[in-house]
Design goal:
Helix content is 13%, strand content 26%. The chain is of the alpha+beta class and 626 residues long.
Length: 626
């Protein structure tokens, strides 16, 4: 059997707006005709090859005549027909791409004109495979056999696998999602080949060892690789072997299927809107609670570690620019300090392209069109007085946040708000580090925030934004709570034992797990978060009347066959949705739980496995995994 992949992530300077739209309205009205009818804002035609009409292939229309590179893609129907709709006024290059094909020559096209295109059949399997999604190439990497787990170490009598790896799934999670695959789209051309600019090496093993030290990500890449060191050379040796096999001509074992059915109705529009030396972690364009906010308005990006210049895109004018985000204090450390260049990058040399004090990670828009960024505005050494236990702040009395950190700390963010109407920035100084954020649909427009890890200080924080905009008082407007499980089973929060301590039948238990993703449930007002520790957990917080002292947490571990998660969201019925490294979309419906959700074993996360449903995603898997 094969383990499927749960994530395909790329660091890109393009924002994709995907609309489920029937792009062949004229076609649908005249199903028996081969003639394509278009209006003055479209380009249409028929794609054929020497084999006849080409169904399920992409037609791409691209122009450089607008404020940024613009491309729109559609899929042909079963007779090879296509319509690229609603194009801005410009001249376009149009060509065909598809599985089993090589890119056709680009043809000049004008709006309102029919352009019939000739597809180019790939001359051989290797040429066709150049267009396969990265996961098809990634699936060729060797994975340690299940017999190697659990690891017993490299000492006498050990099996050579680190003791930290208990299962094959844990190794896969590190390879795919919560490790190497966190930043890289494994299997694309940039990863499966060694760039010539890296230099000459005696072996692929030496090339990979050098490559993994490149640029500002080199320290973390080398750290991850050291954790995956085994007696047979570890993941480093497997990457080298993978590269050698591909260079020798080995191809993916399976072939992707062309889009079919409703997949052919997807229209993708791509705009370049940042620079080659920065990357986008996220974007905001409307209030999720009311998607009519900011109609046709500007889109705001979050470039995380790369720059303090926030990319801003106007989808109507199709123009891009940047907006410099300020910090409140001058002594804020930069990502350049936390991620030094330890070896030249084949792309940027010695240049430290990551250089930001802001470190804007995640934006969210409110009902007034204001954009809230989880962003750094002060040094982690400058903790506000109201974070200390003796300050009298309700949350600080219950769970003080007093530990100072020196230098650049990835998760030492607060909240910075930009108001497009006034073009002014406002800082909200939170005691807790911020990572992701989501608004509640309540009278206070409460903003709930995750803190990722916070060095074991697992918590969830919130800002009463209604109070903040009325008073400007950051201290009174914010709160946070530890994540406490009702292990004594009395239905309320009591004094608790700490993580690592044995369960006490008279007390509750605090979790060391922390929110990564965060989402508010419109079904019952609970707050949900994802925790990255293998095999992955979701957490439910019921705030209660005084959350700092009354909030109770439930924890649910991802059961087999699933493993490995990052973000999450909650639908209108209160069902939680996650993507998994195991190659599934998964849902958790608490309404399906049959037994009690508290008690002495509740902190372990094994309750309510019946709440989970798994939906396999398409794509190949690693050979030898089950």
């Amino acid at each position: 059997m094969f383990k499927r992949f749960g994530k395909m992530k790329t660091i890109s300077v393009a924002a994709c707006i995907i609309a489920m739209a029937v792009s062949h309205r004229a076609i649908a009205q005249q199903p028996q005709q081969s003639v394509v009818q278009i209006d003055g804002k479209s380009i249409g035609g028929v794609v054929t090859s020497k084999n006849g009409p080409e169904a399920g292939v992409w037609v791409i229309a691209e122009t450089m005549e607008l404020g940024t590179r613009f491309a729109k893609m559609v899929v042909t129907d079963d007779r090879g027909r296509f319509v690229v709709p609603d194009l801005p006024k410009a001249s376009y290059n149009v060509w065909v791409r598809g599985y089993g094909l090589a890119d056709s020559p680009k043809v000049k096209a004008e709006l309102g004109k029919v352009v019939n295109l000739t597809a180019v059949i790939a001359p051989n399997a290797a040429a066709a495979a150049e267009y396969y999604p990265g996961i098809y190439w990634f699936s060729m990497i060797d994975i340690p056999d299940k017999s190697m787990f659990p690891g017993t170490g490299s000492g006498p009598g050990g099996n050579g696998m680190p003791e930290s790896f208990k299962t094959q799934e844990q190794w896969l999670n590190m390879v795919q999602l919560n490790g190497c695959g966190n930043c890289h789209q494994w299997g694309n051309k940039a990863t499966r080949e060694i760039p010539a600019a890296l230099g000459a090496f005696d072996s692929s093993h030496a090339a990979w060892a050098r490559r993994l030290q490149s640029g500002q990500g080199g320290t973390e890449m080398a750290m991850f690789m050291s954790r995956m060191s085994t007696a047979d050379g570890g993941h480093l040796a497997r990457l080298a072997k993978w590269t050698d096999r591909i260079k020798a001509g080995e191809l993916p074992a399976s072939v992707p299927q062309r889009p079919n059915g409703v997949e052919r109705n997807v229209v993708v529009t791509v705009y370049d809107w940042a620079s080659p030396k920065s990357y986008l972690h996220d974007l905001a364009l409307t209030d999720k609670r009311n998607p009519t906010i900011n109609p046709n308005g500007k889109i705001y990006g979050a470039p995380e570690l790369s720059t303090s210049d926030i990319p801003v895109f106007d989808p109507v004018k199709i123009t891009k620019n940047t907006m410099r985000v300020p910090v409140r204090d001058k002594d804020v450390p930069s990502s350049k300090d936390g991620f030094p260049v330890i070896a030249d990058s084949p792309y940027n040399g010695k240049e430290a392209v990551w250089d930001t004090q802001v470190n804007a990670h995640n934006p969210m828009m409110d009902q007034e069109g204001r954009v809230y960024f989880t962003a750094q505005s002060r040094s982690p050494l400058n903790i506000p007085s109201y974070c200390y236990k003796d300050s009298g702040h309700p949350s600080a009395k219950a769970f003080p946040l007093e530990v100072k950190r020196n230098g650049f700390v990835q998760n030492s963010r607060q909240v910075t708000v930009y108001d497009p109407k006034t073009q002014k920035f406002t800082f909200i100084d939170t005691c807790f580090g911020t990572h992701h954020l989501n608004f509640a649909e309540d009278a206070n427009n409460t903003l709930w925030l995750s803190n990722n890890s916070q060095f074991g200080e697992g918590l969830v924080g919130w800002i009463n934004t209604k109070m903040f905009w009325k008073t400007g008082d950051a201290a009174k407007s914010q709160g946070w709570t530890a994540l406490v499980v009702d292990t004594n089973g009395n239905g309320k929060r009591d004094a608790y034992v700490e993580p690592g301590q044995a369960v006490d039948p008279t007390k509750d238990k605090r979790l060391a797990l922390a929110f990564y993703g965060v989402a508010w449930s419109p079904a019952d007002g609970s707050v949900w978060g994802s925790a990255l520790a293998h095999p992955g957990y979701i957490l439910r917080v019921a705030p209660g009347s005084n959350p700092s002292e009354t909030a109770l947490t439930e924890v649910y571990k991802v059961p087999e066959p699933g493993f490995g998660l990052r973000g999450l969201d909650v639908d209108r019925k209160g069902v939680v949705w996650v993507g998994l490294a195991s190659g599934h979309m998964a849902s958790f419906d608490r309404r399906k739980c049959k037994g009690p959700l508290n008690g002495p074993t509740a902190a372990e996360g094994n309750l309510c496995p019946e709440g989970w449903t798994f939906y396999p995603m398409p794509g190949p898997g690693f050979k030898g995994t089950a």
